[in-house]
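A reminder before we start the practical. When you read a complex entry, don't treat the lines as separate problems. The point of joint prediction is that each chain is placed relative to the others, so the output describes one connected object in space. Small molecules and nucleic acid strands, if listed, are placed in the same frame. In the example below there are two entries. Take a minute to note the order of the lines before looking further.
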Amino acid sequence: MVVAATGDTRILQSDPPPVQGRRRHVLDLDDFTAEELTATLDNADAMRGVLERDVKKVPALRGRVVITLFYEASTRTRISFEEAGKILSADVINMTASASSVEKGESLLNTGLTLQAMGVDVIVIRHPHAGAPHFLARNLANVAVINAGDGAHAHPTQGLLDLYTARAHLGGIAGRKVVIVGDVLHSRVARSAVWGFAGLGASVVLCGPPTLMPDPLVPQGWGTGTGGNGAPNPLADVTVQPDLDAAIEGADLVMALRLQTERQQRGFFPSVREYIRRWQVNDDRMARANTNALLMHPGPMNEGIEVSSRLAHGERSLIEEQVTNGVAIRMALLYQLAGATVVED
Amino acid sequence: MAGRRIMDADEIRRAVTRMFHEILERNHGADELLLAGIRTRGVPLAQRLARHIQDSENAAVPVGRLDINLYRDDLSERPRLRIRPTTMPADVTGRTVVLVDDVLYTGRTVRAAMDAISDLGRPLRIQVAALVDRGHRELPIRADFVGKNIPTRQMELVRVRFCETDGVDDVSILERGAP
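Here is the predicted structure of the whole assembly.
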């Protein structure tokens, strides 16, 4: 996994690889092979077909129970998981930490064990601390865990929906140039997107104020060239270019990240005005990218800061489609974890 | 292991020819007909039937592809990890939909396919066409059009191969567990 020098990202043990082709948890994209990424996107294609029908309901997860356990605020992620589960006929229960025994001081482990004892099949968890979903996954024997965002560490379902949206519009990911611009250091969206796009062979350029770039960029245990076992560095084609005008040259896809303006108080950048001047994605800058270059944003957006309003609502913007695709991707993952029972023949 | 070959390419061709005649006869022509191939091998069979109908009646019958993994309930053929899009070139409402599959066995695939079709619209009627009916039904379902009835033991597997998917046309009986 990508490890930042600062922020609340911890060095985490990698989880064991999926057994017999069947994945138990979705914690990050760093353990997805290119084949599994592609298979997941293909399944999402089929799920898009269900979303486009008059009757948006299939019985695939009938009798399964999915809990969304959110320790942080969320609109689109929680609702799209809920919608995905309901379309697949699972029973979806929403649990917010602020209105539960967590308020009385119940630990994450005990909350997880309680839910497991109730016969829950899937826990979708968002937590402010990096590694919380991994912790649950290691300690719950009979529950599938999906990470819906943990600290500044990972947001794999967002990464997959970004990949899916990009693939649908670019035709393919391999060889494409993807620019991720903004507060990469504190962004779990960027951390998962990097693994996804690099995993399918895109070249990824990270851009933003140097104070908001992660360091080191290579995953733990990797040198600059190859890893200890001689395998190529999966992030070899990920580079940093703080100058957006240079970074965006020839880009096929630009992903703007949400800028948390509170970061200015902590001295990460001098002023919002300067940030806008140097790192806002707008029409002038997009003109330097490839002719049909596309814009994505994970939301929620600060319109007029990290991205201009015109661009965000223009024809190059995929922002609304990302939301639709988020439901399809989450349907695919829920199906893969809780629905499918055999490996492809 | 090659198994016991039950049908070769010529026999498959003759069976398909008879099936398309029966489909046209039963439905008094090709009007309002839709062939829905159940993925994977129902699709090439449906396409062959549609080609025959085109040649014989000069009528283009729409061919849909049905992935029924999201509707499965059976243990004999459990849901696959990979699902593929269901595509229907025409609205099923008001049409005679012929579900096309390579092998009819427990009937659970057909039941799932009927559920899938019903979620897409309200067909006038649903019929079932299978190249091979091997028996051992677990549901009150029967085929309207059958290429060949093959008595089997439950321990056996019926393997259908088509040029479009496997590079060769034949039907064999294998022992379960054989490669």
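Discuss with your neighbour: The helical segments of chain B are 9-26, 42-57, 108-120, 163-166. What might explain this?
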